[in-house]
Structure formats: C-alpha cells, structure tokens
Amino acid sequence: MLMDEISAVPSADAWLKAAKADAAASGCGMFLLHNGVVRRSAKARVRHGENEAKDVVGMRFSYDRDKTEAAIARTLALDGISIVRVWMNEGELRVGDDIMYVLIGGDIRPRVVDALQFLVGTLKEECVTETELY
What we know:
Low-confidence stretches: none
Radius of gyration: 16 Å
C-alpha cells in the first residue's frame, strides 16, 4: 500500500489485519512495523553527542512522493518481501507526534529486518526533509 491510500494516522492493528488478509501474505512469516515519532532530544545530541544542543519542541516535515514511491518499489523488489506499507505525516509536528509508519512483510526474519532497515534508511536519506524547531 502506498501513502496516498491513507491520509489519517494509521492503526497498527488495522494495518496488520489488512496485511495478513492480503493475497501476498501467504508467503509472509514475519511482519515488522516502524513508528517514527518526534523526540525532544535534538538530532545533534543523540547522533553526534553534542550535549549542548537545545531541546526540540517540534519539527517541520515533508516528503517527496515520487522518491518515496520509488523507494517502496525498490523494497518490494527485494528477495522475500511481499508487503510494504508506508504512511508519512506532513507539516509542523510537535514532540510525540507520529512522523511515519512503515510496515514490511516477508518470508524470513533476516530479509524482513534488512528490508525495514533499507526502506526506513532510504526514506530518511533520500525522501524526507526534516527541520527541527527549538
């Protein structure tokens, strides 16, 4: 499922239920769900150890739909991956708000873990724009 099919924040339970009912689910032995949220700690602090970084009160978040669709297609082409769903928020978000949901379904754990890592990494590196607000 691609982003444009859902506008509201998805329900993890509903997503899993729908994924398991999908015809492609018969080959899935595992599903993983990623839910990224806005955190108070600045990226500079948690990723680079800059302890003097200010706390975040929110972020501006947007994404490129075409690049996101391409990332989803590349993930679906990975060996053993049958189901990919992505939802991303947009606009000015506050601490605790959902940024994105990503669901991956596939045949075996190593492939599903790797696919989730690949897709979330690709989305963060190539598809989204995040500006922390202080």
